[in-house]
Amino acid sequence: MINNKFQCIRDVDLLPTSPISFSARASAESLILEVIMIRILNVVIDGQMQAINVEEETLISASSLFNKMDEDMNKGWTLSKEFVENPDITQRCQIVGDKLLSAIEDENDPMKTMMAGYILSRVPNIMTLYIDNTGEIFETQIELAPS
């Protein structure tokens, strides 16, 4: 039963096809309830899955960075020795997935969060990113949530 002073968050379908988790904390001195919305990007590398949590606030605050990344990619990008003049969204996720792989290998958590955030912001219905770590960027695959 829910206390009438607090509303249960029922609109989990704000991002209907994305994995979402909520974290709540109540202060001992006051009855303040803090709800943090977290988006999750599942990443598979060599058959090993890891979940990368990105706070919704991070997605909002990093939007200018994500736009700058898009501007840079609009100029073209070299993917596996092939220059792509204007990468589509899948290719952009492959590019960023490669950067995400480097961040994971280097244990660079801030970069890992930002790269996962970019992908979540551009493909809101992504469920899993399968990152190829053999150097074939075109082999990185995206799994979308069922619609």
Task: Give a description of the structure.
This protein is an alpha+beta fold and 147 residues long. It has one domain. 33% of the residues lie in helices and 30% in strands. The protein has four helices and seven strands; from the N terminus they run βββααββααββ. Strands 1, 2, 3, 6 and 7 form a five-stranded mixed sheet that branches. The chain has a two-stranded antiparallel sheet with strand order 4-5. The longest helix is centred in the middle third of the chain and has 17 residues. It is globular and about 50 Å long. 19% of the residues are buried.
Overview features:
147 residues, alpha+beta, 5-stranded mixed sheet, 4 helices, 7 strands, disordered N terminus
What's the total number of strands? 7
Structural class: alpha+beta
Q: What summary fits the major beta sheet?
A: 5 strands, mixed
Unreliable stretches (pLDDT < 50, length at least 5) are: 1-18
The termini sit apart by: 32 Å
The radius of gyration is: 18 Å
Helix count, per DSSP? 4
SSE ordering: EEEHHEEHHEE
- Give average pLDDT, whole number: 83
Instruction: Assess the beta-strand content as a share of residues.
Output: 25-35%
What overall form do the CA principal axes indicate? globular
Task: Count structural domains.
Answer: 1
Residue share in helices? 25-40%
Q: Quick recap of the structure?
A:
Helices cover 33% and strands 30% of the residues. By secondary structure, it is an alpha+beta fold. The protein has one domain (41-144).
